Amino acid sequence: MLASGEQIAIAHGDQRAVITQVGATLRTYVKGSVSVVEGFAGEEMPAGARGQVLYPWPDRMGDGQWEFSGRKAFPILDDAASATGQQGLVCWRPFAVESVNQNRCVLSLLLHPTPAFPFLSEIAVSYHLGPMGLTVTTTVTNRDEVAIPFGLGFHPYLAVTTPTIEGAELEVPAKAYIALNQRRLPTGEILPVVGQPLDFSQRKSVNGHELDVTFTELQRDDLGLATVTVVDHDQQTVELSVDRNFPYVQVKTGDTLERGRRRTAVVVEPMTCPPDGLRSGKDIVVLEPGQHWAGSWRVRRL
Q: What span, in angstroms and rounded, lies between the C-alpha atoms of 47 and 86?
């Protein structure tokens, strides 16, 4: 048995992906012999939240009790340096494998109430390979007797074909970003990117930029998709697109990772709310008992 549990393989044409039972994590995704996401080996644990599902909150949550529907929650602070909780509660939990066919699989988890999130909910994640790449669709259902809040995110590392991201160019179709304090938590300010070093609304080099930024006010196409593009030094392109249910993307260049992993990929995290969303209430999703929510994003190599 591997550390990440059962390995679910799907394929379409020259595309191959492997999703793990633990965390419903995207472990690998290749087109031909070229990686689309920078993954990890089956015997490894996914360091740096690599490929993981972030639920019921993405990114960081601050310390201090919060309350919703008359229930009190007490965050688990797993980053001692910043006194924050990171990346939700499902990353290390085994999901049930609901269905598998050649190019699609669905994994689900019934998340029982805990002091950190005292609500009963179900999350189902579908991975589907097709002509447009890998589409990830998540459905969240309120299985509780009261209204519940949540946030959702994902943590894929977009791969380059060069040893590092030096010489790569990045385009993020955002008009604004979230101001953060020293603990990497939002200050409440949303600042314009125009005229700032963080303006990647037109494709430009990542050289000299150490990014860990929550972008918002995303510009979308006629289908409602906002697309982040990474073009490496060899002019190989990976795109990640989010639907309207994901109004935020967190972009990181991996400057604090362990040696050998620093600046070797660009993290682009689709997020439904900003960091600390459950405590601030900013753009959280609220579901009434029995209600469903669904959102999608996709990633592909051109």
A: 13
Q: What is the pLDDT of residues 230-284, one digit of tens each?
A: 999 999 999 999 999 999 999 999 888 888 788 999 999 999 999 999 999 999 9
Count Cβ atoms within 10 A of the Cβ of residue 88 and give its class: 0-12 exposed, 13-18 middle, 19 or more buried: buried
Q: Where are the domains of the chain?
A: 7-164+249-301
Res 139: pLDDT: 98
What is the CATH architecture of 7-164+249-301? Distorted Sandwich (2.70)
User: Quick one: which H or E segment has residue 280?
Assistant: helix 277-280
- CB count in 10 Å sphere of residue 214: 24
CB 137 within 8 A of CB 299: no
Residue 8 sits at φ, ψ, to 5 deg, of -105, 115
CA–CA dist 72, 292 (Å, integer)? 23
CA 181 centroid distance within chain: 21
Residue 64, token pair as written in the block: 């201090």
DSSP string covering 63-129 = SS-EEETTEEE-----BTTTTBEESBS-TTSBPEEEEE-SSEEEEEEEE--BTTB---EEEEEEEEE
> What are the helix and strand counts (H, E) for the chain?
1, 27
Nearest to 190 by CA among 198, 178, 172: 178
DSSP alpha helix (H) spans, 146-229: none
SS percent in the chain: helix, strand, coil, step 5: 0, 50, 50
Residue in the block written with tokens 């955002």: 174
Of 56, 69, 71, residue with least CA distance to 276: 56
Contact 36, 133 (CB under 8 A): yes
User: Residue 178 carries which side chain, given as an amino acid letter?
Assistant: I
